Amino acid sequence: xxxxxxxxxxAGTLVHRGAWIGQSSGLxxxxxxxxxxxxxxxxxxxxxxxxxxxxxxxxxxGAFDLADRIRAARAQKPVHAFVxxxxxxxxxxxxxxxxxxxxxxxxxxxxxxxxxxxxxMSGALDQKGIAVALIHAGARKVDANPYQPLPEGVRDQMxxxxxxTRFLFAETVAAGxxxxxxxxxxxxxxxxxxxxxxxxxxxxxDDLADPVTAFRGFAAAPQSSSPTSRKGSQMxxxxxxxxETGAASGTTAPPAAAAPPGPAPAxxxxxxxxxxxxxxATAASxxxxxAEAAEVAQVCAQAARLGVTIDAADAVTRGLKPEALRAKVLxxxxxxxxxxxxxxxxxxxxxxxxxxxxxxxxKAASDAKR
Length: 370
Description:
By secondary structure, the protein is α/β, with parallel strands linked by helices. It has helices at 30-42, 63-73, 90-95, 122-127, 152-177, 183-188, 196-201, 211-219, 279-305, 312-317, 322-332, 356-369, and strands spanning 5-15, 27-29, 48-59, 79-88, 100-103, 108-110, 193-195, 207-208, 341-343. It is 38% helix and 14% strand. Strands 1, 2, 3, 4, 5, 6, 7, 8 and 9 form a nine-stranded mixed sheet that branches.
């Protein structure tokens, strides 16, 4: 804990299980992150949670469940993500659930996609004169085994599972980002990586600042601060001094004192005369209907790729909303594949070291004692 803020490090490759895996291994477990999150929420001395993220991604299994827990935590305490320097793929799933995301000018976020690997060793084994016989019960028991070429039907099934997972990935990101990044916009990134100002413009992040400076602004926020609005984005190189909006610190000004409880006096209201819609309002309404119909069609097209058939014309006629259709698609999809990993290509693991945020906080504490 630093100045009343719980700092949760999310670094290296992310894996499902292993609560005691440390950064020295190059791995961080969702299980361990969840335990730290729960402890921070239960501690009355902690008034905010900082996610210190530097990860290229990791496993699918456990990522979305942890994302849901981080998003739910915002209702109790402000949660901010500080990217130093990467929050990609599974790392971005977690970052996207924070109230705000801050990254440096060279920071990278995104990679909203999924990848699976199949290695065909049959040619190499033939050259060495090695024959592998797989004795199995169940026609699909040895699907995607490395000793045989990948059959087209198995490849198609794997592709479908990846598309299902990417759909859920984008749905989770959209739930965390609110109106700053829609489900359709998340899919439209096609798993691209966005850096610095481009990430702000695309709606994948909120603030452009040195993570250490931004963290100090977050830690200096008033005790009674609450999470910021999910609307709008900010781009700055230094934390804002404006306390009304709390753009840099990610908190709003303390709420005004509430009036004593009691029944409010009734005030008669004169009914306002109905005003017929103007031409501009009618045009705007028509444009809104067109946009919603287009979004419905897009959802139906994506569903078709996933093997779920929805009649777009019927959905529009019945007035079904895009959100309801997405929920239906997710309900109809098969269970996601734990064999797939959401990960961007990562460099070789480096030796463990403190994150910039923690290193700066420790130095400040040491200087204060002198």
